[in-house]
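pasting for the record
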Amino acid sequence: MLATKTKKEESFTITGEVSGFPDGTKFYLRNMATDAVFDSATVEKNNFKFEGQLSSPPEQIWLNAIVDKKFIYTNLLIGNDKINVKGDIADFPWNVDIIGSKTQEDFNYSQSITKEYDIKRDSMVQAFMKLPQEKQEEIGATIWGKIRNIDSITIGLRIKYVKSHPNTFISVINLGYLKNELSKDTIQKIFDKFSPEIKDRKYAKVIEVF
């Protein structure tokens, strides 16, 4: 009985309530670190469900599907938790409602801080990539200059989040991404504030090695 309870506690469940996806659409879970698909689930009557176990939680995961040859996705940061994903196909990737996990909720909040700029950047890149080659060459320097300005703003916002939220998994993940934007002394001061639990996870090892 105890073993069954422990196994259940160490498993994840992702339930989806989605509209706009035809029955039979397959959703996939892809590990962002390894780029490997490790599970799939099929939409039936606007619902899908994943059940499994993460050996090294939390994990950064792409939840994605392909509809009419279009890649549709949203990002997860979850452990062995119960997660509910709710939204219309038009809500992906930015406006999907994902609840049920403290780690995911921390991630959602960190994403909301840069969301306006992330959407603007994404739309600019997509519009640029659709242009003919000669047009890309004509306006490329201007467009990528604007994108770099957006990146500068989002980097500043992410640094601010990391400094003000020193005990979340998304902070230590972001600190790994931002390590070349900060001095080693600043990184050390931020890192020292993390809890032993966070320091013991794989994301923290990246910073330790650095």
